[in-house]
Amino acid sequence: MGAARPTAIIVGAGIAGLACALRLHQAGVHVRVLESADGVGGRMRTDLVDGYRLDRGFQVFNTGYPEAGRVLDIKALRLRSFSSGMLIFGAGGLHRVMLPWKHPRHALSGPLSGVGSLKDWAALGAMTFRDMAAPAALLRGGRERSTRSELRHWGISEAMIDQLLRPFLSGVLLERKLETSSTFFHLVWRSFARGTIGLPALGMGQIPIQLATRLPSGALHLGRPVEAITDDGVLLRDGHEMAAAAVIVATDPRSAADLLPEVRAPAMRSVTTFYHAAPRSPLGEATQIIDAEGHLADTLVLTDAAPEYAADGRALISTSVLGVVGDDHEPQLRARLEEIYGDTRGWRHLATYAIRDALPAMLPPLSLRRPVRLASGRYVCGDHRDTSSIQGALVSGRRAAQAALTDLCP
User: Fold this and answer.
1) Which residues pair with 247 in a beta bridge?
2) What is the pTM of this model?
3) Fewest CB atoms within 10 A around its CB: which of 121, 141, 245, 362?
4) 3-class SS at 15?
């Protein structure tokens, strides 16, 4: 008989842990995924509320993420795409800015929007072309500074930054100071320029569900919180111990730091998403609206892109603000939405999702490949080990799996 297959325990069933488990399973390792919650996905789950699909905080899928194309069956997700551009709400109403290579009909929308100067648009175009055409390795190896300093380095004016780039990037980076590493910014900008953003027809939660369904029967254990990492495996909160040759911690950063003293939890960005239902779409197109004055991070009529998000043909509007706020903020938010969309008296507030730890802050100096191997048999993965994105989470899962395989199968 052949040698027994080694066992690996993955703590956490977010997309990083599931990608890690799938890679180990495909390599012949016996995997057990332990998840404290009642479902997979971690921060990426979709709730069904009164017939509406509510992602736990606004999220989108970007087809420009290369690791996603390698790991996921993107066609099976049935992506519903948004326009490659935005509507900027500010003085004078809504101003359209679209990517000209994706929307030729709006090729001059940027320069004609009244936002920025022709010099600004030329500088932004040069930077975007560089980011699209250059190898990712070149972007990772460039001189690092804050995103704001980088934009000024490219010759983009403060007015253009304040009117367009800061409002747009605040919804992506979850911060308004543009202190995020320029290295990370260029990688994100490249993905937006090359890819298309959209939603799986049945919600962002379909991404981890797809990964989980490819694991062997019995590999996934829900409602099994881990209390501690032991010399031989893990100790569950119910007192039960499980042995394993390898333990990979794939939880959120704070929980990972609690389980593994070698891990230092990074600063985190927070965001709150409000969902409203309306009798009909107040916009009529699948385009993101950003708030030039910074009251909102972004607002979108999700059902203009993904009608499956509402079962009865009504409209579902997602609006996000930076930081953690509660339902008592909704009247103030509603007043701003009325300025943007018009009469909202027929709208119904469905839910508020305050996400304290939405994304790890990507501050300079930034290491894009933080260690995933802590010692032989002990590993960690998650977007805090790579970049704060779906791409980073999936890459970190692959890296942790490969590190474990190197130790398990020398």
Assistant:
1) 9, 378
2) 0.95
3) 141
4) helix
The phi, psi pair for 201, rounded to 5°, reads -55, -35
Structure-token pair, residue 141: 């190896």
Residue 184 sits at the vertex; the CA angle it makes with 183 and 188, to the nearest 5 degrees, is 120
**pLDDT tens digits, 200-257:** 999 999 999 999 999 999 999 999 999 999 999 999 999 999 999 999 999 999 999 9
Beta strand 373-375 with 378-380 is: antiparallel
- Name residue 106's amino acid: H
Burial 17-55 (b: 16+ CB within 10 A, else e): bbbbbbbbbebebbbbbbbbeebbbbbbbbbeeeebbbb
The SS3 call for residue 376 is coil
Q: Please, are residues 246 and 404 in contact by the beta-carbon 8 Å criterion?
A: yes
Residue 384 burial (CB count, 10 A): 28
- Residue appearing with tokens 């111990």: 241
The 233-236 sheet, strands edge to edge: 226-229, 233-236, 241-243
Token code pair at residue 316: 């579902």
Residues in CB range of 178: below 8 A, 6 or more apart: 146, 147, 148, 151, 161, 165, 166, 169
CA distance 11 to 240: 15
